[in-house]
Structure formats: structure tokens, C-alpha cells
Amino acid sequence: MRRRSPDTMREGNALPSTRRRAALAAVAVAAVIVGLVSAALTGVFSGPGQATAATAPPGVKPARSPVAVSTSAGRTSCTSVAHIGDSTSVGMVSPDWLPDAAQRLAAQYHDVGVRHVRIDASGGRSIVEELPGQQNGYIVATNWYSAGYRGCWVIALGTNDAANIAAGSNVGMQARIDEMMAAVHGEPVMWVTAQTDLTSGYWSEANMQQWNNALVQASKHYPNMRIFNWAAMVQPSWHLSDGIHYTSAGYAIRAAAIAHALALAFPADGRSKATVVS
Question: What pLDDT was estimated at residue 73?
């Protein structure tokens, strides 16, 4: 589903059921996410380990020294992974934030047994709304599936969705999750929970917790869905001063943790019996 700010809105195909009809009546609030999130980190990434250049926010210098990240991850049964994310994924694939390629997300996926990795991360992305020149998460997944991709999916979206709902969108949490799950057609999915350090505003942690609770509720209806509880492990020191994005150390930890969680969610000997992994 495509949503732009009200003066430039145009619609595309999306939910294949009553969810679609509800979504078509949505109030588009994509303009909200232009402010805080997309100003901090932007960039679009695609292909196995390939990325356009991404830069640090003005006045913020990413750490150039290596960041030691240790995990005890096993191996995953996911030989192919498609990762779709927002700006909180951008730093995990950016050489500006992680000069050591071994710390970046694609390398971390390879370390747990993934052979084929495709990543698309875009600042300000949500499942429904779109910034100018951007594809939302649903469209990215739909295009990849239509092009023949089959494998595991890691969805690192929700931060902007929760904010957009708080700002007035009437496309609710369940509808957004259902839309994304419909796009992957029953393939294995690991969804990364959202977290911020903010106590107020659209991106407040309270809104993120509501989103995470919606993920847990949705997982009861999707046997192919697992949830990585990233929110439970985040430390304040991993965040930049905006309370949303991460330092270089934070991105290194996040990349390693997501790969480790994938090996727990879909281990080499099958699937985790637990819906939530951490």
C-alpha cells in the first residue's frame, strides 16, 4: 500500500481482504516522519551486502575503532534472508558507521549460516506510508516475492508505524502487521521489536511497547512468525542523543544480535517452539 502526505497521496494495491478496504480510508501521515527519523539517517540498500552511501547525522561522528561483539549464535536453517528495515537498519550496513565489514549485518547473517542475503533499509520507512521516492515495506516485500524470492524474512519495521498511528493514521497496528505478513505468503518471518528512549511524542517508548504487544498478539495467528525481543536488551548507552538511532557500537551489537536471534528463531534443526526469542 502506498501512502504519501495528504497533498501528494496516491494509492496502490495492498491488503487482499477487508483490511484493504479499511486501509484505503486511512489518513496519510507520512509527513510526520520527515522530521525526526529521516533527518537522522537515510539511505536505501539492496542486494547481498551492497549499499548506497549513508552518512552520519550532522555533528555526529561515528566511531572508527572496532567494536567487539561476541555472540554464541548457532546456525540457522535459513539459507536465504530478506531483511527489510527503516533507519534503525541503515547503520548496520553503512561503512560510515561500521568500517569493519565483518561487523555489518550481511556478514553477521553469513556467520550463522545464511548464504544469500538481500537488505533494503530506508530512513523513515513504514509498512504503509511512503516518503517521496521511497517504497514502503509492503511494496518492497511484494516486489521481491513477485520476482521469485523464497526464503526467510527479517522485518525490522514498526518504529515509524507506531509513530504514524499516534500521529493520526487510522491504519491500525493489526492491519499493518497483517499486510506485511500477507506479502510474505507464509514464508518464515522474524520480526524485530521496536524501542526508543523517548518518554513523550509520537516515537515514545510507550507507543513502541503498544506496537510490540500487537506483534505478540498477531503471532498467535501466524505459525510462521517469530519475534526477536530486541527491546528487552537495548541499553541507553547504545543510542544517539535522539533516543531512536544508535551509535556505531549500538549498530554492531544490533547486527550481531539480530543474526543470533535468527539462529534461535529458525535453528538448523527446525523452528523454535518459543514465539519470542531473545
Answer: 54
